[in-house]
């Protein structure tokens, strides 16, 4: 979801007239919390036990080591980005993480790699047992609010990947809509017809959900008399509400969550391009609205570094130097249990995280070119 956004924010902030001095004005609008907990780089590593999809017969066994190297020895920097779909009343209790992305910035600071973890990944959530990855945020937030939700999710991700984190951030989808509206909308090219399960209209023209999601698998069932919002194949301009609805869809896409990840990536790329455009950078009022919306949409933990410090650290990145990698090669690996459709990370994905721990994702991408998401 986030490819290009960090680079765009940093560059836009520095170009805002007055450089980092100007950015400090927007830094004050960013909510700061202690989010990382035991997943922070300076916290001691925990024992890691990972269940992965079996490798084809004859292949070597792959897994994360039980005793990982100290986090301080891991080269480069790691950031955990979480997008939440928080509805009214869910901010502090029960919001689920719909987008979980690990960002690895190379030791030289000139490359960044983004790996989106499937929300249905089968994981062991500390203190809660086996569940889907996105449940970790909901479990932690019930008593600890956003900070508790992120900390439990981050601890779970650390156990899955072996990575400790130098920073973490939350953005809710309502905030993303505000950012898109602040830049005047974005241009997107829809690659596959996408039918909304969230937005539709009844015979009287009133907005209402066009599908019911039937548990336990949340299979969408059409609601009689309601016409769903449809995004046909082709390129056009999207307002904030359309862009938000478009990137939330997965139930009716041929490739499910991987399709949603791709659409989220396309949106953030388009948003980054819009932030860099003359219509925003060349218009002080538009740039002010955009950076204010970004700041108000973020909850951030820099693990001892300020937002300004991170802007300076990342300002050398350009969208072309930010690469997104697919987990499981973009293919769903089913791990059903008790009627629940989990996804299980395959051995090559665990190799991917091993490469991140050793700051050699460039070599991994060269060996697995089909795991690289092309720049939109």
Keywords:
376 residues, 11 helices, three-stranded antiparallel beta sheet, 24% strand, LytR_CpsA_psr, Nucleotidyltransferase, domain 5, eight-stranded mixed beta sheet, alpha+beta, LytR/CpsA/Psr_CW_biosynth, globular, LCP family protein
Fold topology:
Layout: H1 5-14, H2 19-27, E1 31-32, E2 77-84, E3 97-105, E4 112-117, E5 122-125, E6 129-132, H3 135-161, E7 167-172, H4 173-182, E8 186-190, E9 194-201, E10 207-208, E11 211-214, E12 219-222, E13 227-231, E14 234-238, H5 240-248, H6 256-276, H7 278-281, H8 284-297, E15 298-301, H9 307-314, E16 322-325, E17 334-337, E18 340-343, H10 347-357, H11 361-367, E19 372-373
Parallel strand pairs: 1-15, 2-7, 4-16
Antiparallel strand pairs: 2-3, 3-4, 5-6, 7-15, 8-14, 9-10, 9-13, 11-12, 16-19, 17-18
